[in-house]
C-alpha cells in the first residue's frame, strides 16, 4: 500500500453542518472508512467558513473547531492530532490517521484577531489568508490583481510564521501570491490548485507562480475538483495532464495532492454534471498510482508525490 497525504479536506464543514447537535457519528461513520479505504495517512483538515456576513463565518469557524476537537478527543485510538514533526514521525509507526488542522479563509479574524492564538493553541497549524474574497488581510482569486496583501496581512503572515502555521495561497489572487512570496521568510504552499497553462482557471497557477513556489521551497497540492481541470467530461486523465505538466516544469519534489474531494456534500453530481471520473472521493485516491507508473514515474518519485513531499515539508516547518 502506498500511503497518501491529502493537503486539503473540507470534511469538517460537512460534519459541523449535518451534525449540529454533536451526535458524534458523522466523522467516524461516513468519512473515516473512506479515508481508510483510500490509504489516506495524513490530511490537512480545514476550518472552511461561508456565510453572508463575517460574523456568520466567525460562528461557523467556532462550530467547526468544536467538531474537530470533539472527534480528535473522543477517538484517540484511531486519530492523531499532528502539531509537531515528532507527531508525524510517531504516526508513521502506527495505523492511526493523522490530522493537521488548518483554516480555509481567515476573514473571520476581522471579528476577533486574537482567536488566531487560541486556534494555534488548539493545534491549528495551517491557514489560507482568503477564500477568493477581498478581506482585511489579502485579496482572493475572485478579486482583480491590482490588490494584494495589506499591512494587516503582512502582520498575519508574520504571526503565522511565529506560530508554525503554514501559509496557504490556494485561494489568493496573483498579486497576493507575489506579495507573500516577497514578504514570507518561510516556504508556503498552494494546497489545492492546478496548472493555468493546462487549463485557464483563476484558481490555477501560472508558470511564473509555479517557478516562484518551487524556488521558495513550497509544494502544490494537485486538485481533483472538476472545474479546475478541463472544460467538460473531466476525468482522472485530466488530473494527470496537470500533474505531468507541473512535474516537467518544477520537478516532482514540489508536487503533492490536495484533492478537494466533496462527494459527501454533493453526491455524484454537481449542477447536473458528474464529478471527476475515477477521482471523486477519498477512496479513489489509489487510482492515481497505476497512472503515475504508466507515465514512467519511479517508485521513489511516486512515494514523494503521494506522501513524502508534504510529510517532509510539514516535518521541517512544524518544528
Ligand atoms: Zn478551496
From TrEMBL:
Pfam families linked: Peptidase_M19
GO molecular function terms listed in the Swiss-Prot or TrEMBL record:
metallodipeptidase activity
User: What biological-process terms (Gene Ontology) are attached?
Assistant: proteolysis
Q: Which InterPro entries does the record associate with it?
A: Metal_Hydrolase (IPR032466), Pept_M19 (IPR008257)
Q: What is this protein called?
A: Membrane dipeptidase
Amino acid at each position: 500500500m502506498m500511503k497518501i497525504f491529502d493537503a486539503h479536506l473540507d470534511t469538517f464543514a460537512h460534519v459541523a453542518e449535518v451534525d449540529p447537535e454533536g451526535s458524534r457519528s458523522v466523522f467516524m461513520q461516513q468519512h473515516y472508512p473512506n479515508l481508510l479505504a483510500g490509504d489516506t495517512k495524513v490530511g490537512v483538515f480545514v476550518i472552511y467558513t461561508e456565510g453572508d456576513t463575517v460574523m456568520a463565518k466567525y460562528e461557523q469557524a467556532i462550530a467547526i473547531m468544536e467538531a474537530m476537537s470533539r472527534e480528535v478527543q473522543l477517538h484517540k485510538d484511531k486519530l492523531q492530532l499532528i502539531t509537531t514533526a515528532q507527531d508525524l514521525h510517531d504516526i508513521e509507526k502506527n495505523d492511526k490517521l493523522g490530522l493537521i488542522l488548518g483554516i480555509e479563509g481567515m476573514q473571520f479574524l476581522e471579528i476577533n484577531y486574537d482567536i488566531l492564538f487560541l486556534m494555534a493553541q488548539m493545534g491549528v497549524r495551517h491557514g489560507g489568508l482568503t477564500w477568493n474574497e477581498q478581506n482585511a488581510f489579502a485579496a482572493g482569486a475572485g478579486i482583480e490583481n491590482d490588490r494584494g496583501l495589506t499591512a494587516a496581512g503582512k502582520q498575519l503572515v508574520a504571526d503565522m510564521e511565529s506560530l508554525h502555521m503554514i501559509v496557504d495561497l490556494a485561494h489568493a489572487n496573483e498579486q497576493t501570491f507575489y506579495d507573500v512570496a516577497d514578504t514570507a521568510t518561510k516556504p508556503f504552499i498552494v494546497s489545492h490548485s492546478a496548472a493555468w497553462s493546462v487549463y485557464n482557471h483563476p484558481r490555477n497557477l501560472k508558470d511564473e507562480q509555479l517557478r516562484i513556489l518551487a524556488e521558495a521551497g513550497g509544494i502544490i497540492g494537485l486538485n481533483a475538483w472538476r472545474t479546475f481541470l478541463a472544460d467538460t467530461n473531466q476525468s482522472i486523465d485530466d488530473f494527470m495532464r496537470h500533474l505531468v505538466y507541473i512535474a516537467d516544469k518544477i520537478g516532482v519534489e514540489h508536487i503533492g495532492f490536495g484533492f478537494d474531494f466533496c462527494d459527501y456534500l454533493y453526491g455524484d453530481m454537481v449542477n447536473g454534471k458528474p464529478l471527476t471520473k475515477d477521482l471523486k472521493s477519498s477512496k479513489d485516491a489509489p487510482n492515481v498510482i497505476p497512472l503515475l507508473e504508466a507515465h514512467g514515474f519511479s517508485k521513489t518519485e511516486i512515494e514523494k508525490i503521494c506522501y513524502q513531499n508534504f510529510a517532509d515539508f510539514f516535518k521541517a516547518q512544524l518544528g
